[in-house]
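Tokenise the fold.
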Amino acid sequence: MEVTILNASGDGVGPSLLLSHGGGAGQYLVNAPEGFSRLVLEHKIRPCAKLSCLVLTSIRPVAAGGIGGLILRLAQDGHEKLEVTGPRGSSAFVHALRHIFRWRHPKVFVSEWTEGNVPVFEDEYVVISPILASGNCCQSCVYQQNASFSRHHEEDLLPELDEDSNPVFVRDTRGNHSIADCTAPGSSPVTTVLGYTFYLKKLNSSLLILDIPDCSTLSGMEADAILHCEQHPQGIAAVIHLSPGPVVTSEEYSRWIDNYQSFHVLVNASSPQYGLQASLRTTAMLNMVSKKFFPIPANCNECEPSAAKRSSLTSGHLLSRMVLERGSCGDIVVRMDHSKCIDNFNFTNYQEDLLKLQPWLRDKLLNMESQRCSSNQLVARAMKRSMLRQSCGQSHTAVCSSDDFEVQFFGTGSAEPSKYRGSSGVLLRLRGSAAMLLDAGEGVLGQIFRSYGEAKALEAVNSIECLWLSHKHADHVLGAVAIVCSQARARTKPLLVIGSTAVVKWLTEVGNAHAQSGFPLPAFVVMHFAEFEGSHHLGRVLETLQLKSIASVPVNHCYEAYGLVLHGQTGWHLVYSGDTRPSDRLIQAGAGCTLLIHEATFEDCLESHARKKRHSTVSEALQVGSRMQAEQVILTHFSQRYPKVVEIDVTSYPNACVAFDGMVVTSSSMRGLRELQGVVRMVLAAQDPWIAKAPPSPEGWQNDTRKRHLEESLDAPKPPSIPKHIRWESD
């Protein structure tokens, strides 16, 4: 059995594990956190057709926020069936997805664990059973001795589906099927899971995976029988800890680790790891063009994956692999392999390598800056920027007094995930500390955390007064739950979410599912566009955001798709198109705007495709800006066919530019974008130095952090009192 660790906390992607039997004969996934699909796409390790079971330790975004993206990927790959095991509310959570997208395959069978229902998954390789906080017996041992548990081998007749349903079915312990009902209140008491036991049949041993949500549930470790079972088959070969930092470092948890005889691997390390490095390389290139428009994300140069601080713990980094196999002496060998681990991205090193590989680029950038202004002007500009930063306290939640607004792009792609562009999300910050988030595709929260660092990101998220979702499609809304989840519970006013009928129904059902699971979402208000415009919430938002008016304008995309028109009290005027064909109504409502942010999904050669999908081409979006007489046009929402840059006729449209993830534009700086388009294309066309050069060989790793991490694992003392039939090795 091979276990691949997937954890990119710096990108907001929580820990997950991909377990594979030899040769990919069977695959099992522990958690599908938000951002999971994009992370595995970049590293080419996404689940294959043999994925048979997904187990969830909770339905919070850090564990289940990526299940929608996972199902969409499996549907495209022709996957037929997926078993899902999780807490109460899991079926309602998955079934609620019908409001924002539909699929016919895979059929999804959901088993929920409660006091009276302990589902166990079994195939020819593994037996997977939950570890419940209130467990009074070892479910794994009981399963081996009790044939009354459902083994889910049989393919029962499925209930017929209506046109409004996705193929989501609820299993009980008898293996019966019923269509998921999100409205059923249920009467079973809430049961917290501490993790899962994977009994490995071929090895006649077990793997323990722990994910204890918070310190309040630590008492369950003392109560659960599986953690103290003396008759468990051949003991526990290894324990993988997904629990968050405050839990792992607690005295009670540390005491349990010291007393539990096994090999322990800590996944959720304290320092952030960055796994979405293709987009970081793009940002590094753009940062060389303009540090103002393309700032370096917080902490990226300083942080390296941390090693476990306790001698009884081994660190498990992104792409670390644990291999469990039978040794030549018949014992169980647990081997850690860190050879595929990646370094955290260092912007300074990357930019230096780029200039060494492309020496002409340094001269070009220097000439561009010298042509822009004289040396005295450069000094004056630098001093002004420094003074503005000091006056703002370098806060990420406040806009400098010289600006009416600031726009930051946290997702400029469309539909499927891409290595270079995330799903839609635009943060609009206004004078003072208030903000408005326009759309929230999967991973937007993670991009906010990556951009600002954890402390400042929480400030930024809590400054959001209104989350405005243009339409129901998954690439614009799947990240909304994470935004709601991250709100401070002490917030005086609940977050206001505005969207279509489908979005209102989806978020309502998701909120109910979280309440069923025992971890309710922070208070929030969700309402339809029309309801908002006639409610008292409108006045509150206008006052807080210092706006004169907010108008949601129907556009031509899907049912109840809208664009947004904002008028500021100081005279500025911003338009956001959402997804749409060129819209006369939007052009009329946004006439003479200061800034137009318009989708440009396809290049001009795919106009027929754009019409079919009800999107706009690049030229169509530019023509909208021209007809609207927009002062500045920024294009976004690009198809993954065009991962880096789209060509714009800057001669005909000098006021237009292309958006990139992480790009920051203020009302006073946006005119400076016009002179950057040519050099942006030039820089992005340069050869990537970290792809052009061969990766370092193991013999040349003297200064490579990958070698250091590997040496730390090799030199780490073995945990005390490992059972004699289990042996640990490391490559």
In short: The longest strand covers residues 13-20.
